[in-house]
Amino acid sequence: MSMLNENEKKLSHIIAYKIQKLIIEGKYKKGDQLPPEREMANYFNVSRNTLREAISALSIMGVITKVQGGGNIISADGENNLYMTISLFFKIQEGNPYDVLFFRYILETQIVKILCNSHENFNFSVLNNIVEETNQTDDPDDLLELDIKFHKTLLNSYPNKLVSYLTDAIFLLIREQMKMTYDFLRLKKSLRKEIYENHRKMLDAIMNNDIKTAVFEITDGFESSYPALDFSEVKYCK
Question: Is there a single domain that holds both residue 167 and residue 120?
């Protein structure tokens, strides 16, 4: 139990922020060990109890891992917490599922445009295998998982760590949104054929540097799944 007064608690939050800022600035990297508590307390001009409270908060966030006999280590465990935090915050704020849908549409169309211009780090073989697997099953649950896998792999094909982190962070929401769609479409007899042909044409267009067709296939896929929605506001963004 923390024995800090209110002022010390506020100060511990400030110290936690300052330590995160040092990490962002590159002072500390993943795997680095933080200096001894006494040294850090002197550096920030706070008590060791205040520093420990700050480090404890960072440990809960997954930013720091406490190693017995090894001090405090900068870790990457905060990624999962980040994913859950964004999803949870969206739910608490009663975010509209259509916000997720339109965000996904904008993100996919822009990334596909980039991939059409550069195939560097493009996971063609992985995506091609997913497409062919899609053509081999009529099970709606399998189709859902393959569809999710295709779009997540597509989004992560863009070699930008920030985009990858944000994609992974919101993919819990994207997955839920796609599952809701399948609950309505799963009885559609032509579902497998439509998904296969859409993904096949999109993948071929990317490999042929055909931006217009690639974006058209994305738009067609969204409009086929959500015929009541209007994508015209973002369809022609350049």
Answer: yes
Whole-angstrom Cα distance, residue 185 to residue 17?
46
CB 7 within 8 A of CB 53: no
pLDDT tens across 53-84, in order? 889 888 877 788 888 777 899 886 555 566 65
- Asked whether residue 210 is domain-assigned, the answer is yes
CA distances to 20, 112, 213 from 154, rounded to whole Å, are 31, 8, 16
CATH (domain of 208) = 1.20.120.530
In a domain, 1, yes or no: no
Residues 69 and 152 in one domain: no
The domain tally of the chain equals: 2
**191-238 per-position pLDDT tens digit:** 889 999 999 999 999 999 999 999 999 999 888 888 777 776 554 444
Q: How far apart are CA 208 and CA 152, in angstroms?
A: 21
Helices 78-92, 161-185: crossing angle, 10 deg rounding: 50
**Cα Rg, the chain, nearest whole Å:** 23
CB atoms within 10 A of CB 144: 20
Question: What pTM does this model have?
Answer: 0.66
Token readout for 118 is 């550069």
Contacts with 9 (C-beta within 8 Å, 6 or more apart), sequence order: 2, 53
